[in-house]
From TrEMBL:
It comes from Urochloa decumbens. Residues 541-585 are annotated as: Disordered. It holds the Pfam family Sec1. InterPro entries: Sec-1-like_dom1, Sec-1-like_dom3a, Sec1-like, Sec1-like_dom2, Sec1-like_sf. Belongs to the STXBP/unc-18/SEC1 family. Residues 550-560 have a biased composition (Polar residues). This is SNARE-interacting protein KEULE.
Length: 662
């Protein structure tokens, strides 16, 4: 029996990245088993990794609709269902093959027939092991490589689930570690499956190792982007011969960088609604827990909600500045009340103001509007919480100093003054300030000045580890450290670009919105073909047929959100009236239409963790460049997670991320 590769071509469609992933799982995998199966309902069996792949892309209702009546864990005891067929979606590992053979071999297999789909290419030895079992072979309905081994975390984002990439690739102990190569190999395979799914063959650009001269040793950690690019290239070369209809010439761009390009983005306070929710609220992934009135109305009960694309209010507001989001929510609530007599009566009884609790009570009084009021009250509550935290933690003062440091409007004097006078600022926020300062002024930490600043901020030795380990993310140093102090050399060219440049023509009405990630600038340069040749290499030269930009002059994209030109100083600016309470639904209807007739895709992969500001930039640039920008990374990190991971880089014994928290 031959090993089939995936065969459906995605050419010519305009679905977004997550939709393509979802459709492959539902139709190419689950639905394809209907052809030769007499069983109406099937069992879907997955391992711990593939169940996450599925859950990021599909809902349980989607899976059930494709004829799956039961979802099982490969490694848990399962009840025999000899009258049903089974679909196995598993990684091609020895352990998984052993479990599969155990299920299907012998006189009494667990299932009638098995349709096996591997998440990535399977070794010939493992296929031979399956074929060797004569009792299993007749019971196999399909044996196929899906080549889909990533988490589609966003309509334009994915991760390879390498939460410990910083530790395994960039720590002092990474050199010579077996985890180094294992991590890079798996990461390369998983990135490649993105291109198998999208039917894209990229030009592979990567950040080159920053070797100073012939006498300077190039460290393994500085070679990470180079090695990963080579690994991806090798996988793609195999796809060209093994996957039917895989492109033979370049169709898109891929840029591979690591966290050394921008150490500030993972630490600085971001002011978009999405970033603030994940930074300041105790979310479990995208899960938010809030209290709602119980059915009898006398008590409250906890309710879990997911802040995801199916929520039109979230989809509309997630990339908006927190002040803009708050204003828009206020306008939506006002508009909703003005258009509903029952809501107006409720408002009159409560003295004219409508609180979150009032909105929740309206759900019971106005059942026909329950879904809209539910979502509106949820986001009014969240925005209220965020604004309270911003006030309580003096975050606008912290954020102002962070951005002043980055753009060169503040220095050591202002930082010291802030640490001395702002006693209400938390230890974590002082640590983040000092990490930003260290990234911009490494020479200040070459003597005891750094220790004195840490002492002034009241930080612990544990916090110092996070600052110290930032040097592991960077290239070789050009000069020797003095006085036994460590050196924080974050980039060979940092001296020339100590502070980020202001962007011209992109003024915002909102305070604290000056900051932008370096990745945004790099993507724009890549799109124009202007990446610095001395810093970025390409694995392949462009084919004569390669065109990065859309060729049609009638390219249609939705207009970018208009930017108000008023300057605000220290207060949030108030925008013009936003839309009514019903308008968010239109966001869902038109969310994917923006990608029709776009130019060729740009993929960017960040080794060591991407940030929400970088994901936001991918969305923003898709509209600006008229090219779908897809951001990939080893993980998506919020500031507390990133700082925890920096601390873990110095821990010798095996710990989990939960063992070491800020």
């Amino acid at each position: 029996m031959s090993l089939d590769s995936d065969t459906s071509s995605q050419g010519g469609d305009h679905r977004n990245f997550r939709q393509i992933t979802r459709d492959r799982l539902l139709f190419e995998m689950l639905r394809s088993t209907r052809k030769n199966s007499k069983s109406t309902w099937k069992v879907l069996i997955m391992d711990k990794f593939t169940v996450k792949i599925m859950s990021y892309a599909c809902k349980m209702a989607d899976i059930t609709e494709e004829g799956v009546s039961l979802v099982e864990d490969l490694y848990k005891r399962r009840q025999p269902l000899p009258s049903l067929d089974a679909i196995y979606f598993i990684q091609p590992t020895k352990e998984n093959i052993v479990m599969f053979l155990s299920d299907m071999s012998g006189r009494s297999p667990l299932y009638k027939k098995a349709y096996v789909f591997f998440s990535s290419p399977v070794h010939k030895e493992l296929v031979a092991q399956i074929k060797k079992d004569s009792s299993v072979l007749p019971r196999i309905g399909a044996l196929s490589e899906m080549n889909l081994e990533y988490f589609a975390i966003d309509s334009q984002g994915f991760t390879t689930d390498h939460e410990r990439a910083l530790e395994e690739l960039f720590s002092e102990n990474a050199e010579g570690s077996h985890k180094y190569n294992a991590c890079l190999n798996t990461m390369a395979t998983r990135i490649s499956t993105v291109f198998a799914s999208m039917r894209e063959f990229p030009r592979v650009h990567y950040r080159v190792a920053k070797t100073i001269n012939a006498s300077t040793m190039t460290t393994l950690r500085d070679l990470v982007p180079t090695k990963l690019a080579a690994g991806v290239w090798n996988c793609l070369a195999k796809y060209k011969t093994t996957i039917p209809e895989f492109p033979q010439t370049e169709t898109c761009e891929l840029l591979i960088v690591d966290r050394s390009i921008d150490q500030i983005a993972p630490i600085i306070h971001e002011w978009t609604y999405d970033a603030m929710c994940h930074d300041l609220l105790c979310l479990d992934g995208n899960k938010y827990v809030h209290e709602v009135p119980s059915k009898n109305g006398s008590t409250t009960e906890k309710k879990e909600v997911l802040l995801e694309d199916h929520d039109p209010v979230w989809l509309e507001l997630r990339h908006a500045h927190i002040a803009d989001a708050s204003e828009r929510l206020h306008d939506k609530m006002t508009n909703f009340v003005s258009k509903n007599k029952a809501a107006q009566l409720h408002q009159a009884r409560n003295g004219g103001e409508v609180s979150t609790r009032d909105l929740q009570k309206m759900v019971q009084a106005l059942p026909q509007y329950s879904d809209q009021i539910d979502k509106l009250s949820l986001h009014v509550e969240i925005a209220g919480k965020l604004n309270n935290i911003i006030r309580e933690q003096c975050l606008r003062d912290v954020g102002q100093l962070e951005q002043d440091l980055v753009f060169g409007d503040a220095g050591t004097k202002e930082l010291i003054n802030f640490l001395r006078t702002q006693l209400g600022v938390s230890r974590e926020n002082k640590l983040r300030l000092l990490m930003i300062y260290a990234a911009l002024n490494p020479e200040k930490f070459e003597s005891d000045k750094g220790a004195k600043l840490m002492q002034l901020a009241g930080l612990s030795a544990d916090d110092m580890i996070a600052v110290n380990n930032m040097r592991c993310l960077c290239g070789p140093d050009t000069k020797k450290s003095s006085g036994g102090g460590f050196t924080l050399k974050f980039d060979v060219h940092k001296k020339k670009q100590a502070h980020r440049k202001e962007r011209t023509g992109e003024e915002s009405a909102w305070a604290l919105s000056r900051f932008y990630p370096v990745l945004e600038e790099l993507i724009e340069k890549l799109s124009k073909g202007e990446l610095p040749k001395d810093e970025y290499n390409c694995m392949n030269d462009p084919s004569p047929s390669f065109h990065g930009l859309p060729t049609s002059s009638s390219v249609r994209t939705s207009p970018a959100h208009s930017m108000r030109s008023r300057r605000t100083g220290g207060t949030w600016a108030r925008p013009r009236g936003s839309d009514d309470g019903y308008s968010s639904d239109s966001v869902l209807k038109h969310a994917s239409s923006d990608f029709k007739k776009l130019g060729q895709r740009i993929f960017v992969f960040v080794i060591g963790g991407a940030t929400r500001s970088e994901l936001c930039a991918a969305h923003k640039l898709s509209s600006k460049l008229k090219r779908e920008v897809i951001l990939g990374s080893s993980s998506l990190d919020d500031p507390p997670q990133f700082i925890t991971k920096l601390k873990l880089m110095s821990v010798e014994e095996e710990l989990t991320l939960d063992d070491l928290q800020i």
